[in-house]
C-alpha cells in the first residue's frame, strides 16, 4: 500500500492494487481502529488541493466514527461515510458548513479548524 497524502495519525489517501482509499485512524477509549473507504481520483484531487476540505472531512469523520465505535454500531457505516465524503469534497461551501453544523459537536469541529489555522471568520 502506497500513501499518497497524509502523514502519521491523520486522514490519508492510499493506493492499493490500483484502488484509492481514504484511510482514517480513530481512537475511542482504550482501543483504536482504522477505517478505509473507497475513493475516486476526484476525491484525491480535492483533498490534495484544498486543505480546508481535507481537515474538515478528517474532523467530521473522526467524530462520527468515534461515536459509532463507542456505541459498537458499525451498521451502514460505509453509506454514511461516503455521503459525508461526497458532500464535503464535492459540495458547495454551504454544503460543507451544513455538515459541520449537523455534527454532534459542531463547536469542537470549528475549534479544531481554528487550531489548524483554517477557521472561517
Describe the structure.
The protein has 121 residues and is α+β, with helices and mostly antiparallel strands. The chain has five helices and four strands; from the N terminus they run E-E-E-E-H-H-H-H-H. The chain has helices at residues 41-49, 51-70, 77-90, 93-101, 106-115; strands spanning 2-5, 12-16, 19-28, 31-39. The protein has a four-stranded antiparallel β-sheet. Helix 2 (51-70) packs antiparallel against helix 3 and helix 3 (77-90) packs across helix 4. The protein is globular. The chain starts with a strand and ends in a 6-residue tail after the last helix. The model has no long low-confidence stretch (mean pLDDT 94).
What's the topology here?
Elements: E1 2-5, E2 12-16, E3 19-28, E4 31-39, H1 41-49, H2 51-70, H3 77-90, H4 93-101, H5 106-115
Antiparallel strand pairs: 1-2, 2-3, 3-4
Helix pairs in contact: 2-3, 3-4
State the gist of this model.
With 121 residues, the protein is α+β, with helices and mostly antiparallel strands. The protein has helices at residues 41-49, 51-70, 77-90, 93-101, 106-115, and strands spanning 2-5, 12-16, 19-28, 31-39.
Give the total of beta strands: 4
Q: For the largest beta sheet, what order do the strands appear in spatially? A: 1-2-3-4
Strand content: 15-25%
**Secondary structural class:** alpha+beta
Which word captures the global form?
globular
Average pLDDT metric: 94
SSE order in H/E notation? Answer: EEEEHHHHH
Task: Give the biggest beta sheet.
Answer: 4 strands, antiparallel
Tally of DSSP helical segments: 5
- Helix content percent band: 40-55%
Radius of gyration: 14 Å
Low-confidence residue ranges: none
Span from first to last CA? 38 Å
Amino acid at each position: 500500500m502506497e500513501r499518497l497524502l497524509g502523514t502519521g495519525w491523520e486522514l490519508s489517501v492510499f493506493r492499493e492494487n490500483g484502488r484509492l482509499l481514504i484511510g482514517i485512524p480513530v481512537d475511542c477509549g482504550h482501543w483504536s481502529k482504522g477505517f478505509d473507504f473507497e475513493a475516486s481520483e476526484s476525491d484525491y484531487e480535492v483533498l490534495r488541493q484544498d486543505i480546508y476540505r481535507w481537515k474538515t472531512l478528517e474532523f467530521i469523520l473522526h467524530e462520527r466514527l468515534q461515536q459509532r465505535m463507542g456505541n459498537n454500531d458499525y451498521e451502514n457505516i460505509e453509506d454514511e461515510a461516503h455521503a459525508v465524503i461526497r458532500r464535503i469534497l464535492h459540495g458547495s461551501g454551504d454544503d460543507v458548513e451544513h455538515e459541520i453544523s449537523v455534527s454532534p459537536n459542531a463547536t469542537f469541529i470549528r475549534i479544531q479548524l481554528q487550531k489548524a489555522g483554517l477557521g472561517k471568520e
